[in-house]
Amino acid sequence: MTIALQNTIAASLGVQQLTSAFSPAFSHLRILRNLIIPMPEGSPVRTAQIDAVLVCETGIYLFEIKAWRNAFVYRKKSGQAPPRWFLRLQGCTRAREVKDPAWQGGRKTTQLRSLLADELRLQYFVLLPCEGVELEGVMPAAVITQQDLPYIARLVRNNGRTARTYPLLDAEAIDRTAQRLLDIQGGLSVEDHVQNCRERSEQISVRWNIAGANNAMSGIGLQ
């Protein structure tokens, strides 16, 4: 099974779990899948993909969905450097480093915030929907599993209704907000985002090849 297929299956599973957990808590909600948003000029990749965006009475909730399964997830922190994330499959002793999903979600949230009205609540989570995932050590509160979803749904409902930091959205406002998100996406597609990521990878590959060639020439005195 390819990584892309694994991610697609995990995203579908995650959306099903979101629907099951949030529908009892909210009478009206919208869930958008694979929302593509433009990133600021100068960003390494011109677009970003948000796996699931849930719009409900209390605001907008972004979900970065990871296809990790049957594994231990943990972080290592050294000094002032950002924490490094690792994934260790159950039954294995070696771990592999993975991209920081909390940083990924935070970066997309910051950009989307700049494109939306300030009076909208905007919050992100990293959802691990597959079986057999265990979180080790201290994790950001935004990193959640399937078992956490019913509690998270009640939490955002109760906090949103009692804090009143942001206005509550009725059904019309929810639909209007979902449409605003689609307007931000505009004509961008998942295929566009994949192409942008591919171009970025090719740029990095070219730079590595040039650097390697320069080092080789330097080593034999040709520079």
Layout of SSEs?
Blueprint: H1 3-22, E1 30-38, E2 47-56, E3 59-65, E4 71-76, E5 84-89, E6 96-98, H2 101-115, E7 122-128, E8 133-135, E9 143-145, H3 149-163, H4 171-185, H5 190-219
Parallel strand pairs: 3-7, 4-8, 7-9
Antiparallel strand pairs: 1-2, 2-3, 4-5, 5-6
Helix pairs in contact: 1-3
Structural write-up:
Helix 1 crosses helix 3. Helices cover 43% and strands 24% of the residues. It has a five-stranded mixed beta sheet with strand order 1-2-3-7-9, sandwiched between helices. Strands 6-5-4-8 form a four-stranded mixed beta sheet, with no helix packed on it. The model has no long low-confidence stretch (mean pLDDT 89). With 223 residues, it is of the alpha/beta class. The protein has two domains: 186 residues, no CATH class; 34 residues.
